[in-house]
Write a structure and sequence with these properties.
single chain; alpha+beta; Immunoglobulin-like; 2 domains; 7-stranded mixed β-sheet; 3 helices; 26% strand; DUF4232; DUF4232 domain-containing protein
Length: 240
């Protein structure tokens, strides 16, 4: 046998011997893959007893109850307001029969008076009972000039003439009481000392009252300077 024939024979032998090795190796790899696939499928299908998660929770939990229906809408009715405390003291109503007359049942005006001395005028402050029961007045009314269209007090209030008699006056419904008022003329004072201001009328406080009446009066002038006093008032007396 020549050299070429021997070489070809050895190559054929190697080819025949290698084919089974490749086939065996492929078969072994395929077996390993099949084994791995079977093992992975078992893990997914059969989780361990201690495992937790969404899947396990869904399999073991009971169905959730249906969502509750929304509560009824609040009523549109406005709740009643909280009662206010009952007022105490003077509520501004009509006094009981025989009690002190208050500004709630009185009106004020200016009467003619008895004529003034030189440099002053002396009208009467007139208080009238507009209530339905008798009431009483005793003492001096508080009086001051006001202006500015808004009740601003002008100057000092009236001085009380303590020498005048001050009886208790009972006013029947419609009855009146008078208090003599002296108003000095602002023109008799130096303008710089007086600071004259036109007045719209008088603010009058009935005796013992903290609420006032406005008495309109034309042609009056007050002194805005606080150290000039133009007014003096006597105690109330019955109308004759």
């Amino acid at each position: 046998m020549n050299a070429g024939t021997r070489s070809g024979t050895r190559a054929d032998a190697r080819a025949r011997t290698g084919a089974p090795r490749v086939t065996a190796t492929a078969a072994a790899v395929a077996g390993l893959l099949l084994l791995a696939g079977c093992t992975g499928g078992d893990d997914v299908a059969s989780p361990t007893a201690g495992a937790t998660g969404a899947g396990t929770g869904a399999a073991t939990s009971t169905p959730s109850p249906p969502a509750s229906s929304p509560s009824a809408a609040p009523s549109a009715t406005t709740p009643p307001p909280t009662p206010l405390p009952t007022p105490t003291g003077d509520t501004g109503g009509e006094p009981a029969a025989g009690d002190r007359c208050t500004s709630a049942v009185l009106t004020g005006s200016l009467g003619a008076g008895g004529g003034g001395a030189a440099g002053s005028v002396t009208p009467d402050v007139v208080l009238t009972n507009t209530g339905t029961v008798p009431c009483t007045l005793q003492g001096w009314p508080g009086v001051s000039l006001v202006g500015g269209g808004d009740g601003t007090q002008i100057g000092a209030p009236a001085v009380l003439d303590r020498t005048s008699e001050h009886p208790t006056v009972t006013l029947a419904p419609g009855g009146t009481a008078l208090a003599a008022l002296r108003i000095a003329r602002a023109d008799d004072y130096d303008a710089a000392a007086c600071d004259p201001q036109p007045a719209d009328g008088l603010r009058v406080y009935p005796p013992g009252d903290t609420a006032s009446l406005f008495v309109e009066a034309e042609g009056l002038t007050g002194c805005a300077a606080g150290d000039v006093t133009l007014l003096e008032v006597q105690a109330l007396r019955p109308a004759r």
